[in-house]
Amino acid sequence: MSDADNFFRRAEAILDRLERFIPAHTPTDLTDGIAWRWRKHGDVGRLHRIDRFNPITLDDLQHIDHQKQELIRNTRQFLRGLPANNALLWGPRGTGKSSLIKALFNRYCEQGLKLIEVERQELVDLPEIVEQLHGEEGKFIVFCDDLSFDEKDSTYRALKVVLDGSVLSTPDNLIIYATSNRRHLVPERLNDNLDAQHVDGEIHQSEAVEEKISLSERFGLWLSFHPFNQNNFLSIVDHWIEHFNVLNADKTSVRRAALQWAMLHGSRSGRSAYQFAKDWAGRSALNNIE
Q1: Residues 223 and 264 sit within 8 Å (Cβ to Cβ)
Q2: CA 122, 126, 128, 133: dihedral to nearest 10 degrees?
């Protein structure tokens, strides 16, 4: 046997062994399901179907009526094949950003709306995901939750390309809805403005600032969320107490305990109101059993 034959024989044996550890890439059947999550095994990414959904509804979301109306309108345009914008929902934690997207999906999934959840660290694969969705039936929301990037994080460049930065156009059956605690998705520091220049009476931002702002500006629809005041927080508590079917609850006692809960947790958010109501309902049920 020649040296060349021996080399190719050994190479084929090595490849055979490697194939046992590398999963075969098979396209996901996107007609079998309505929601998927992008997951990677080693260097291979794949869409995994989601079968259990958060049951949140639009009616469960209180005191964000403007944000609901705007995102509903944008989504209806998208479903009807009309022009619609990618959306960035930003604001403090627990104010309903992610819940609004989930509730919207629950409302419109029967009308052909589908969802792909992509975590921040997997955004580098976004162009590959978009390519898989091209030509598929249905309308897809690519859901990126709780986005934030530091100064040295380059994964946001993949998001910029898909939003509006590539020669290739994004498919018409895809829209991106993202949430973030930061308006511009990246930290805004005082020293970013030190390089700003005054030219003919106008302020020209530094390249660092322009680079940071350029990502959020690629979202056509911005929806801002704000902390709830005390009255709104308590009305959200009332909603969830009723949702959990707590009977004969003393309203004064519930509200006093809810405010104490909010002080302890340092937040009068919708999430905090839900967690309190869940705790109160569980305590009440346990007392009745015992």
Answers
A1: no
A2: 120
